[in-house]
Amino acid sequence: MALESATYINQLVDTNPTGSDSISQGDDHIRLIKKVVQDSLPDVVGQAAATIITAGSAPTSNVRGTIWYDTGNDTLKINIATTGATASWVEIGSAAPWSTNPASSCMFRANKSGTQVLSSDSWDQITMETEVFDLGSDFASSTFTAPAAGKYYFNAAFRTSTTHNSDDDIAIYKNASAYAMHSTFRQADGSYVVTSSTLQISCIMDMAASDTAKMYGHTEDSGGFTVGDSTVATFFEGYRIV
Hints:
CATH architecture of the largest domain: Sandwich
Number of helices: 2
Largest sheet: 6 strands, antiparallel
Strand content: 35-45%
Radius of gyration: 31 Å
CATH topology of the largest domain: Jelly Rolls
CATH class of the largest domain: Mainly Beta
Structural class: mainly beta
C-alpha cells in the first residue's frame, strides 16, 4: 500500500501500514510520523511540551505552563513551578473557569433615596439606600467589599440640600481610613459664601481581598447640614479594573 500523505496528526491513517505491506515501507512510515509530529508541534523547541489536561485530580505533570481543567471543582489551573519541580497549581478562574472574570463581573452603582444629616465637624459615612446594580453582589450596607486582590476604580458625589456657610469635604475610605479626599472652601474676602454645592471624587485603589471602600462626608458647619436625595447628584459607584 502506498504511503499516505499527511502534514498533521489527524491526517495519519491509523490502519497503516497493513500486514500486506513490505517491510521496506516501514522506514517511510517512521519518517512520516516524525515529520508529522514536528509539523504539529512547531513550538516545542528544546523544551518539554506544556499540555492541557482534563481530570478530577491533580496530574503529575512537572512542566511549567501545563494547564489543568479540574473537573471535580469546575476550575481552570496552571502549573507555575519550574519545569522538573513539583507542580504548583494556581487557579485561573472560579466557578466556570472562563466566565468568572472579576474585571467584568465586579461593578456597582448606588444612590440615595432619602436625605441624611451630617454632624458638625465629624466624618460620617454617606449611606446609599438604593442599589442601581451590583454585579458580583459585593456591595451591601453602603459598603463595597473587594472579592479579590486587584486595582479598583471608584467615583462618588453628594449634593447638599440646604445652603450653609462652611467648608465641606468628601472622601473615599479604604477600610477605616481616608484613601482619597476632596475639599471645598467657601471663604471669599474673609467671609463665607452661603450656598449649596456638589462635591465629587474619584480614585483608583489597590485592594486586597476583603478590603472595603466607603463614601464619607464632613462639614464644619456648626449646625451640620443635610445631604440631598438626588439620585443623579448623590451616588457611589465602582468596578474592578484588573
